Amino acid sequence: MDRLKQKVITHKRLVLALAFSSVLVSVSSSAQTVLTVSGEVTKPLTLQAAELKAMPHSQVVGKDRDGKERTYSGVPLVELLKQAGTTLSGELRGENLMKYVVVKAIDGYEVLFALPEIDPDFATKTILLADSVDGAPLAQGVGPYRLVVPGEKKPARWIREVKSIEIRFGK
């Protein structure tokens, strides 16, 4: 009987150890959330969550898929592109107008923007890489980052769980 108790105790310890290690893996992977900006840029970026949080934030108001108006806070996409050395403003003419941005999510979903849609010299709306909504962090499955595009009739390009931004040439 003592051997049986010892096996049960050993089994319970093993189960607890496995459960604890999976929690540690989950915590460490979310703490190491990384966003990359690459492609047709002069300074490719790999940004940790703390770096993005420290960047100047803006707010936009937009209607979510449920039709409710919400206030999103985050880094304007154009600011990330500027940091990466993307062709913008006065340089965005001629063949540079053929550049576009692909934003990718963790699950493989991708959306596309022409570079002039993001540049304030061409566009009036601010596209935001949001990290919070109505003062709270984005929910799991939506965040840690979501692209918010105010004024669009359908939020199909409001991509969730953003992991990378790539600038490409359309030629």
What's the helix count?
4
How much of the sequence lies in strands comes to: 25-35%
Order of helices and strands: HEEHEEHEEHEEEE
Q: How helix-rich are the residues, as a percent range?
A: 25-40%
Tally of domains? 2
Looking at the structure, what is the overall shape?
A: globular
What does this structure look like?
The protein is an alpha+beta fold. It has 2 domains: 1-31; 33-169, Oxidoreductase, molybdopterin-binding domain (Sulfite Oxidase, Chain A, domain 2, Alpha-Beta Complex). The chain has helices at 2-31, 49-54, 77-83, 115-118, and strands at residues 34-39, 45-48, 58-63, 69-76, 99-105, 110-114, 128-133, 136-137, 146-148, 162-169. The strands form 2 sheets. The protein has a 5-stranded mixed beta sheet with strand order 2-1-10-5-6. Strands 3, 4, 7, 8 and 9 form a 5-stranded antiparallel beta sheet that branches. Strand 1 (34-39) and strand 2 (45-48) form a beta hairpin. The protein is globular and about 80 Å long. Residues 14-31 have low confidence and may be disordered.
